[in-house]
Design brief:
Bound molecules: adenosine-5'-triphosphate
Oligomer: single chain
Helix content: 25-40%
Number of strands: 22
Number of helices: 18
Structural class: alpha/beta
């Protein structure tokens, strides 16, 4: 039976039929996405988009905007407005469970999860600011709210054979990656335990047991980095399939069993083109656990076709997890329609769709003196202030500037370099994957000490003595950076390509040169700072056209200055 759904103004037609493999009816309805086609604009039905964005104080800002065929500017996506009960349920759980030891995970899995987080957490960034964190062992790892709710919920039915679908939704930088990785590791290890004596034999089979799909190659690297070295500790073999991966490498890994494959939908869909593979459907036949991370991106118009196609290749999935920092009604409806056999169980954090409390907002009106409408002057002023304000002393500062259009990125970067002598890199979709990973390196790694000792710790400010001529009076001064060109500030000018999921490490400053047209993009951009409750600042350059909701969220999210 052919069905059609409209998702993000895209018509998705698909056959809905149950699939049986031999005797056993698979728990997963086959989806043959017949065709995903864009609705011609004139067909776009006028709809009332109620945009509910909760600000920090929990006050939700309801704005009704009638979007007929107005420009996309006014067509704001509907953000899920959760009932007080849903939020309360998650809050009660978070208040009750505060340690990983209180969550149902196999002991070996729990230990691995805590160690991996401790070694990689952005909380290490405060090592650089608060001497008391000199030793990473000082960092006490507790489950974040979304990890409590996710691990608690998924562990309840983790080994049941019926198909279950989950939607994990929590604010940016809240630890969603481990919110699905911990239950996934537990699932794989429990599966092995359930197979007991047979696991020894089965473990030698060529197969892929789980897949994590993300939208970009940077995220393939970032997610894989969490699980890449688990083979020796708990025998979990992971594999990242990204641009540099040869088909032969993928086949070899498959032959030696892949427990966790991290890749993009495009790579999954390319399996059918690999000449070395005679039966492509065999490759994914054993995938039981599938994660769609950054799901609001993978389900939006630019990805939806390849995402649906990739999902339909994994017929035996019985744990399907969508993960996103924002969730809209459309998203939920589409999932429920495509996977009717199991309404996605919502896993949300108590502060979903709110701006992280650790972020301070600064609004700069570019219309007033001395900027007189020049955004670039306002930007230069902000960068000067960041560079000179004494924050992050002894360390290289990093700052990310978001621009709406990639053509503007180059112009802004050139002006900052030529007129203001800043150290600037640009990042857009025109960069190839190698260039992109090179450019973001400075921003996804811990801040570099300005002058390093041999062991990499920051040397204290160079002390310098000045002697007054013909006297024995000398006094201590601190060396200022010698040359005016020496700057402690690394600036990344980019578009939304860097706004989704990238785990910027201890970046304290984000500047919205342009304000995005939707609250979803706004929440993702500002979420590159203030991660895991670290302090962060967001500077928003406004003008008379800036949407009221931007100012409202910023004011609502503003902490006391
Ligand atoms: N329980 C924890 N305690 C301390 N740090 C944690 C914890 N869980 C995750 N982290 C760290 O927090 C940072 C952000 O985690 P992660 O990238 O999973 O956030 P996210 O919610 O996926 O963000 P985004 O929505 O931007 O993708 C990472 O450095 C991660 O190591």
């Amino acid at each position: 039976m052919l069905r059609t759904i409209i998702h993000n103004n895209i018509r998705i037609r698909y056959f809905h039929s149950s699939v049986s493999a031999g005797k056993k009816a698979l728990p997963f309805k086959r989806l043959v996405v017949d065709r995903a086609s864009r609705l011609p604009d004139e067909k776009k039905k006028p709809n009332i988009s109620t945009q509910t964005v909760h600000n920090k104080t929990g006050k939700s800002i309801n704005q009704k905007s009638k979007s007929t065929n107005e420009s996309s500017e006014s067509h704001l996506p509907v953000l899920e407005s959760f009932t007080k009960q849903e939020l309360k349920k998650s809050e009660n759980l978070v208040n009750k469970i505060t340690e990983f030891s209180e969550l149902k995970l196999l002991p070996e899995v729990r230990n691995i999860v805590v160690n991996q987080i401790k070694n990689q957490t952005v909380l290490r960034a405060q090592n650089y600011e608060k001497p008391k964190y000199e030793d990473p062992e000082d960092i006490k790892i507790k489950p974040s709210p979304v990890q409590v709710v996710s691990i608690h919920t998924l562990s309840k039915h983790i080994m049941e054979s019926n198909m279950k679908t989950y939607t994990i939704a929590a604010e940016t930088g809240s630890g969603k990656t481990w919110a699905y990785l911990a239950p996934l590791l537990d699932y794989l290890k429990q599966q092995e335990e359930a197979l007991a004596g047979n696991w020894e034999r089965i473990s030698k089979k060529s197969m892929i047991r789980s897949v994590i799909m993300v939208p970009t190659l940077e995220l393939v690297n970032q997610v894989h980095a969490n699980v890449k070295d688990l083979e020796n500790s708990i025998g979990i073999k992971s594999f990242k399939w990204d641009t540099d991966t040869q088909y032969s490498e993928f086949i070899d890994a498959f032959k030696n069993r892949i427990d966790i494959l991290v890749t993009t939908p495009g790579k999954i869909n390319s399996i059918k083109n690999i000449r070395m593979i005679s039966r492509p459907e065999h490759i994914l036949a054993n995938v039981k656990f599938l994660v769609i991370d950054e799901a609001d991106t993978l389900m939006d118009r630019s990805f939806v076709e390849s995402t649906y196609e990739a999902i339909t290749k994994m017929h035996n999935v019985n744990r399907l997890v969508f993960c996103s920092a924002t969730i809209s009604n459309q998203f939920n409806k589409a999932i429920t329609k495509i996977f009717p056999q199991s309404e996605p169980e919502l896993i949300i954090s108590p502060i979903l769709h709110k701006t992280p409390k650790s972020i301070k907002f600064k609004l700069i009106d570019s219309e007033i003196a001395p900027y007189q409408g020049s955004r670039i002057k306002a930007l230069a002023q902000i960068l000067y202030a960041i560079n000179k304000d004494g924050t992050e002393a002894n360390y290289e500062k990093r700052c990310v500037v978001f621009v709406n259009n990639k053509t503007e990125v180059v112009k802004v970067a050139e002006t900052l370099k030529e007129l203001y002598n800043h150290d600037v890199v640009t990042l857009t979709g025109d960069d190839n994957p190698q260039e992109r990973s090179e450019k973001i390196k400075v921003f996804i790694n811990p801040p570099k000490p300005l002058e390093e000792n041999s062991d990499g710790t920051p040397s204290k400010k160079k002390e310098h003595y000045t002697r007054i001529a013909n006297s024995n009076i000398k006094f201590k001064t601190h060396l200022e950076p010698t040359s005016t060109t020496e700057t402690k500030l690394k600036v990344l000018v980019t578009t939304d390509i860097a706004a989704r999921g990238l785990n910027f490490f201890g970046v304290r400053n984000v500047i919205l040169y342009d304000t995005p047209s939707t609250p979803v993009d706004f929440l993702h951009r500002i979420g590159r700072t203030g991660r895991m409750n670290q302090s962060g600042r967001v500077f928003i350059i406004t003008d008379r056209k800036t949407k009221p909701w931007v100012k409202r969220i910023a004011k609502g999210g503003r902490n006391k200055d």
